[in-house]
Amino acid sequence: MTTQLRPFHLAIQVRDLAEAHDFYGKKLGLPQGRSSDQWIDFNLFGHQLVVHVNPGIGSQGQVNQSNNHVDGHGVPVPHFGVVLSMAEWATLADRLRAIGTKFIIEPYIRFKGEPGEQATLFFLDPSGNALEFKAFKDIETQLFAV
């Protein structure tokens, strides 16, 4: 069954709007949409990501994270990201390395040779939100492979 994918909307909390603008807009290169003094819209590969300032996090604080064991790694929970083409994923991985990103999980191929084989990488934004970007050789057949 093929489903027409629609853009998702995700709103996350950040500790500082200028810091989030620098990270998402400049370092990741996401186009900016509307904004106010409390939030900014970003185009996350065709999806709407909105960062909302939460002063309760504080200048040194970060959002809470937990970890689950997946393929020998501690995967941060919660996390979000986008499934990219292999070429887009490689370009993003190179960009992240070039700007000195500290990865939680370095770019690698997960589940190699198994159903659902995928390229993946994890990192945190300055507020501690975990992001994962992944890619499959064939998204249509591998995204939900068992």
Describe what this molecule looks like in 3D.
With 146 residues, this protein is α/β, with parallel strands linked by helices. The chain folds into 2 domains: 1-55, 2,3-Dihydroxybiphenyl 1,2-Dioxygenase, domain 1 (Roll); 64-146, 2,3-Dihydroxybiphenyl 1,2-Dioxygenase, domain 1. The chain has helices at residues 17-27, 86-98, 139-142; strands spanning 9-14, 32-35, 39-44, 47-53, 66-70, 73-77, 79-80, 83-84, 103-110, 118-124, 130-135. The strands form 3 sheets. Strands 7, 8, 9, 10 and 11 form a 5-stranded mixed beta sheet that branches. Strand 3 and strand 4 form a beta hairpin. The protein is globular. It starts with 8 loop residues before the first strand and ends with a helix. 19% of the residues are buried. The mean pLDDT is 89.
CATH class of the largest domain: Alpha Beta
> Over all CA atoms, what is the radius of gyration?
16 Å
Helix content class? 10-25%
Mean pLDDT, nearest integer? 89
Query: How many helices?
Result: 3
| Shape label | globular
Kindly name the structural category. Answer: alpha/beta
Alpha carbon gap, first and last residue: 16 Å
Number of domains: 2
CATH architecture of the largest domain: Roll
Q: Any idea what the CATH superfamily of the largest domain is called?
A: 2,3-Dihydroxybiphenyl 1,2-Dioxygenase, domain 1
SSE string, helices as H and strands as E: EHEEEEEEEHEEEH
- Total number of beta strands: 11
| CATH topology category name of the largest domain | 2,3-Dihydroxybiphenyl 1,2-Dioxygenase, domain 1
Unreliable spans: none
Percentage beta strand: 35-45%
Main β-sheet: number of strands, strand sense, barrel status? 5 strands, mixed
Pfam family, one: Glyoxalase
InterPro entries: Glyas_Bleomycin-R_OHBP_Dase, Glyas_Fos-R_dOase_dom, VOC_core
Protein name: Glyoxalase
Domain VOC: 6-136
